[in-house]
Amino acid sequence: MLIGGKFVEAASGKTFPTYNPATGEVLANVPEGDKADIELAVKAARSAFEKPAWRRMTPSERGKLIWRLGDAVEQHADEFAALESLDNGKAVMMARYGDVALVVDMFRYMAGWATKIEGNTIPLSVPYTPGAEYLAYTLREPVGVVGQIIPWNFPLLMAAWKLGPALAAGCTVVLKVAEQTPLTALRLAELINEVGFPEGVVNVVTGFGETAGAALAAHPDVDKVAFTGSTEVGKLIVKAAAGNLKKLTLELGGKSPNVVYKDADLDIAIPGAADAVFFNHGQACCAGTRLFVEKQIFDKVVDGVSDKAKKIKLGPGLDPSTEMGPLVSDEQLNRVCGYLESGRKDGAKALSGGGRHGNKGYFVEPTVLTNVKPEMKVYQEEIFGPVVVAVPFNDPSEIEPAANDTVYGLAAGVWTKDISKAHATAARLRAGTVWVNCYSIFDAALPFGGYKQSGWGREMGHEVLHNYTETKSVCVKIA
Ligand code: ADP
């Protein structure tokens, strides 16, 4: 683990295995950091936050370091893609041209912001000091020591989404990576040292959620926690953060509606609806898992999506011909298969897939379920696997209540050639992102985050910088 600029074992000396999800075999053993290691990492981050090497570094220098980190990742792009594919299971091409490319872009985008975090000058009218004059302005200062807790579905990308803005704002960080996928963040930690960040600015701890993660969320000397993961754990983090009222941002679950109107271009809507759910094996919080299709084209669309599902080539992530790898862990395999079983019992019909694929590794068949009812678990709950429920609708007026009938509000998709219908639907959906005639389009400049129980705050874009800065008002009496 990286603590205070040095690579260390866990204080307890314990390690834990990370597995290859395509085979179930152990890939590597990594340090099992816990409360004691979080303690050391927070101390290192606090000390780095106070030292001039970081605190007094010019924004331009800070930006250059972040840019260099992007360059370093790019130089090792193939290596990162292979590591990510091995540890997470995703197809290596996806990791290389999706995840790693976005990571590089994220660091470069955030490098530019380091020199552009500005306050305002504000004219005052103070009614109880008639005749007085003031110069008032705001400063935006780094929030301090930040704990970042990330999931396993996009391990390196989530590290970049979190580290980029924190570093641009001048914070210091303790990053707790997911126990299922620690490898790419550890490699990134080596590059963080190589490009020259002062020691302790970024600390990377591997370990479990209930121990290391919980200790970080509750730590009294952490000023802010940024968390991406399940809504269930998000609620635990809220409770843990209450002790010192640390600032909190949360990017949580989703059960995103994807709406296909009868006037859509089905040549793009059908593959688009398939990709919306099967991208990253459905292990994406924004996955389009509730597919609403206008009645007249329902059969055509769901048959088209299930044909696509049947043709997806499953295999180990490192095989370049693989289109879909295994789920990340046996726990996820059991969870997703449990949902498929519950759907079957409740009367849902699988047009494609419906179960585990093979008996080695954690593969699940891409699945399209019809005959579903709003009260079913498969309709309401986030499955986090390659499973979509398809539901017909009779009239566009049904979409707003049906699509918004969920505790989540992360993302949504709309497919139509009618520009008014597209914008009207986008306006009515209670979701942090609405994609029209496309899906899962991410960019470092485009804010991402959730309404309702999908989270607090936004990641990416300049919006994210508010999460990592405090606004200080300075008021000077000049006359
Ligand atoms: P999933 O259920 O998909 O594995 P989680 O929300 O459990 O997602 O995990 C996301 C991240 O949260 C991981 O880094 C995990 O270790 C961490 N985590 C899990 N439980 C806790 C907890 N009680 N406190 C803090 N972090 C936790």
Q: What structural keywords apply?
A:
479 residues, alpha/beta, 6-stranded mixed β-sheet, globular, binds adenosine-5'-diphosphate
**Distinct compounds present:** adenosine-5'-diphosphate
> What does the main sheet amount to?
7 strands, mixed
Average pLDDT score: 98
Unreliable residue runs: none
What general outline do the C-alpha atoms trace?
A: globular
* Number of E-state strands: 21
The protein's oligomeric status is single chain
- Structural class of the secondary structure composition? alpha/beta
Strand content: 15-25%
In spatial order, strands of the major sheet run 13-14-15-12-11-16-17
Task: Specify Rg, calculated over alpha carbons.
Answer: 23 Å
The number of helical segments is 15
Q: Can you give a write-up of this model?
A:
The longest helix has 22 residues, at 92-113. α4 (77-88) packs across α5 (92-113) and α5 packs parallel to α6 (155-169). The protein is globular and about 75 Å long. The chain is 38% helix and 20% strand. The protein is of the alpha/beta class and 479 residues long. The chain contains 15 helices and 21 strands. The strands form six sheets. Strands 13-14-15-12-11-16-17 form a seven-stranded mixed β-sheet, with helices on both faces. The site of adenosine-5'-diphosphate (ADP) has 17 residues, from α8 and α9.
